[in-house]
């Protein structure tokens, strides 16, 4: 079968790209290896600015609840930065329901959808692009969007994937306890907890409260690894963290630890996210916040940008790499500079995580700005020097005993 565009991967990036392309009247196929709705290893936190940029999401019931605050704890557990707002700081959702909702939106926009179809191979010719499914069937289009996550078959087959396996790993589990218990332990504001470099882990541990269940996990983050001298097993850290949460009365004492699920996320963007008749989006392209590990906003943004470039490509009938390179120019300008700044910034403050949280625990102004960056409410490249200045000012005050 022939299509204008084939989108491989029905996560936030692929579904968003498909929606916008189909709305232009294009013949679009969205294909995924899993049967939908499907589970997705993820904490389920979605930045509020996602709903500002993609305002149509507000017309659908995709959010489970909102968090209005929480605590970020230092590695020693001596200091905590408290966050509290009248407006939500982050939306929390079931990725199973959220991603399925995005697929439905794409279908309602005119997208054809196939699930349970694993892509086995990719072939790019001068006059067409082709994917080969596991059952041997072939599907053709003028251009292909690779949004099939990590590891990405499309990125690998196109030669754009890096040789080394540069990924971060996380493990987590969700515990359904009911809304009444959630209100008791996390309040109606659904206060979250993030423990930076907990128990020596090169990353952080978390507890994200949802409507009727806790999402508890630990994960490594590549920028942290440079500043960690201790080798740890995530499952051991998870077990220790579960005990800490009970000890600190953050979860019920009778809650039993469950079998953990695992997930992987990219470390940094690929050097090249396009080639002849091909564009990569979302995790396939390595779009992730290196500090928090979040990627939903960047995935959807990349899908939207890809749809605009592809529409122009189809109109001009130019599918060469040189023409599609504008996709990379646009995502770099849109959010790529933020990802780059995050990487550079984390290398500065991760060496001083303990004093960073200590200062933030005393200075609400500094703590609020830091949390806005962490939860994706501000573009870090626009305010990074203000954050650094506040931090240095507070460190000087602290040194002279002013605070």
Q: Overview of this structure, please?
A:
By secondary structure, this protein is α/β, with parallel strands linked by helices. It folds into 3 domains: 2-60 and 94-164 and 269-345, FAD/NAD(P)-binding domain, CATH 3.50.50.60; 65-92 and 165-265, D-Amino Acid Oxidase, Chain A, domain 2, CATH 3.30.9; 349-399, no CATH class. Helices cover 38% and strands 23% of the residues. The protein has helices at residues 12-23, 49-53, 95-108, 153-158, 179-186, 222-225, 234-247, 296-316, 321-349, 353-362, 364-374, 380-399; strands at 2-8, 28-31, 45-47, 65-67, 69-73, 80-84, 90-92, 112-114, 119-124, 129-133, 138-146, 167-176, 192-196, 203-209, 213-220, 261-266, 274-275, 278-280. The strands form 3 sheets. Strands 1, 2, 8, 9, 10, 11, 17 and 18 form an 8-stranded mixed sheet that branches.
Key terms for this structure?
D-Amino Acid Oxidase, Chain A, domain 2, 18 strands, 403 residues, FAD/NAD(P)-binding domain, disordered C terminus
């Amino acid at each position: 079968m022939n299509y204008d565009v084939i989108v491989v991967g029905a996560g936030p990036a692929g579904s968003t790209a498909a929606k916008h392309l189909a709305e232009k009247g294009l013949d679009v196929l969205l294909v995924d290896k899993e049967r939908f709705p499907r589970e997705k290893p993820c904490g389920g936190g979605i930045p509020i600015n996602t709903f500002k940029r993609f305002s149509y999401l507000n017309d659908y019931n995709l959010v489970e609840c909102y968090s209005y605050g929480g605590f970020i704890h230092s590695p020693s557990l001596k200091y905590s930065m408290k966050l509290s707002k009248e407006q939500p700081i982050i939306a929390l959702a079931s990725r199973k329901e959220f991603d399925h909702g995005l697929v439905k939106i794409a279908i309602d926009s005119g997208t054809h959808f196939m699930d349970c179809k694993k892509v086995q191979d990719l072939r790019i010719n001068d006059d067409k692009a082709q994917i080969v499914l596991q059952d041997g069937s072939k599907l053709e289009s003028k251009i292909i969007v690779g949004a099939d996550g990590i590891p990405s078959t499309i990125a690998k087959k196109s030669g754009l994937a890096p040789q080394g396996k540069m990924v971060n790993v996380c493990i987590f589990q969700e515990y359904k306890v009911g809304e009444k218990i959630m209100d008791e332990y996390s309040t109606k504001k659904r206060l979250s907890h993030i423990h930076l470099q907990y128990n020596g882990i090169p990353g952080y541990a978390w507890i994200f409260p949802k409507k009727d269940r806790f999402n508890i996990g630990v994960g490594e983050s590549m920028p942290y690894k440079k500043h960690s001298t201790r080798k740890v097993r995530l499952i051991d850290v998870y077990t220790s963290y579960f005990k800490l949460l009970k000890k600190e009365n953050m979860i019920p004492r009778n809650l039993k630890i469950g079998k953990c699920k695992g997930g992987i996320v990219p470390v940094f963007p690929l050097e090249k996210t396009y080639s002849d008749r091909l564009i990569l989006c979302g995790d396939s392209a390595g779009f992730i916040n290196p500090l928090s590990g979040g990627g939903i906003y960047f995935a959807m943004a990349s899908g939207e940008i890809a749809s605009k470039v592809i529409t122009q490509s189809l109109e001009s009938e130019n599918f060469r790499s040189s023409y599609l390179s504008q996709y990379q120019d646009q995502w770099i300008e849109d959010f790529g500079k933020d990802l780059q700044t995050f990487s550079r910034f984390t290398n500065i403050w991760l060496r001083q995580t303990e004093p960073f949280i200590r200062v933030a625990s005393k200075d609400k102004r500094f703590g609020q700005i830091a949390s806005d960056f962490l939860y994706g409410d501000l573009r870090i490249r626009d305010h990074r020097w203000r954050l650094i200045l506040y931090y240095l000012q507070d460190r000087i005050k602290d040194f002279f005993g002013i605070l």
